[in-house]
Specification:
By secondary structure, this protein is an all-alpha fold. The chain has six helices and no strands.
């Protein structure tokens, strides 16, 4: 229950930030920024969309007692999350090359702030993924550890939680991306 309340809180946080961003854009007369939208944000969106079906396979692999492939799945999601974060930082660099800086333009500040808060949530999920990956790799080393790992309902709930969380931050980014795309 607490997990879903945390997701609700995250949703409220991003709703508030997006509302303030939209209000700032409309206060400026709704005029678009005049700068091209960073292409790295588009690329990062594709990477995050690819990560979603990858992490979705994790629950099936867990139910099939396939820890080596579960570890690969978690590692691939971790890699895709890292690529997403790198592309976001490249998008920030692209913004600064266009003359959009954190403190100069209020709308630009929100783009940096909102994408930065989203990166922080992705990194939090990646840390959880890393811990789960290390536990999975440890359990996959022998049959007894595998059996204990697979039969432990706590591990199943952890995997379910990271899957739900990852899909949640994916959906959050898709909404943010759409808002940025149409209002930047």
């Amino acid at each position: 229950m607490m997990f879903y309340l945390a997701l609700l809180g995250i949703g409220v946080l991003f709703t508030g930030l997006v509302t303030m961003y939209i209000f700032t854009r409309l206060k400026d007369g709704g005029v678009l920024s005049g700068h091209p939208f960073p292409r790295y944000f588009s690329l990062s969106t594709i990477v995050l969309l690819v990560s979603s079906p990858v992490i979705a396979q994790a629950r099936r692999l867990y139910r099939a007692d396939d820890l080596p492939n579960l570890a690969r799945c978690l590692g691939a999601t971790l890699l895709l999350g890292s690529i997403f974060c790198g592309l976001q930082l490249a998008g920030w660099r692209e913004l600064s090359q266009q003359g959009v800086f954190f403190k100069d333009d209020p709308a630009g500040t929100y783009v940096y702030l909102i994408s930065g808060v989203h990166i922080a949530h992705i990194v939090g999920g990646m840390l959880y993924l890393l811990a789960l990956l290390l536990r999975t790799l440890h359990a996959a080393r022998d049959g007894v550890r595998t059996l204990v790992f697979i039969r432990n309902p706590y591990h199943r709930r952890q995997l379910q939680a990271i899957t739900v969380y990852w899909h949640f931050v994916d959906v959050i980014w898709l909404v943010l991306f759409a808002v940025f795309l149409f209002m930047y």
